[in-house]
Amino acid sequence: MSTKERLLELTALTLDEKIDEMNDEQLETYVQTLGAFADSVSTLQEKVKESLSAKDYDTLLGNLSETRGLLSGVHADVLASGCGEQIDKLIGETPPEHEDLEDALDELMAAVLTLSIDIQMIVREPEEEAEAEEEAEDLDKEPEGEKSILAVDDATIFLNIIKTALHNTHYNLTCVTSGGAALNYLKEKRASLFILDIEMPGMNGFDLAKKIRESGRKAPIIFLTSNGTKPYVVKAMDSGGTDFVVKPIDKEQLLARIKKHIGE
Q: Which of 121, 214, 243, 257 is found 20 to 30 A from 6 (Cα to Cα)?
């Protein structure tokens, strides 16, 4: 798949016409711009979080203006517009209640972080991914029509969100609260897809993913994370990760990611 085709998979970017007009040099420059944007998001996220927590709305306005500018620079037009809406509310005659503002910005910044992680995955060398897929033997192929999902998180609140998201679907969901329990499950059963929290006591998500891959299983692994820094994402991908869902979990996004990898 070409770089342009990979970038067009990023639905948060408005690229349909713009990318067709780019020559090779312009495309390379744009990819570099995307990389710089992805590198800046975690810092922006912290700035927004700190100014919001301190109720320092003047600084928050500056943070949001910076975020909107960067989003516009990478053609993330819908997210830039959403950022502008929050700015307009803050400077309006009747500013929003703090809790409402907090909820709106949590959702907005989660979407920005998701884009950042998606960008990092897209610009990663596709050859590396192909090689990783070829090395593993498929031990998770299930009978036609059966799609089992194993979710692993030490926090039951997130497992309950996953259960709610998959309610009334055809997926068979099993939830466990530790890496050890997940490995015990896999001694006798299969999974079409894994959903793994990263920050878990004992065996973290990275280590569990490595053990899953070492066992010869190549079913997609979706990591749950609130960290989008480049070293973190690289470590997740190197341990066998296929995709990410940012916490707090958006049910529609989670379901869309699952469908992307194993269908309905």
A: 214
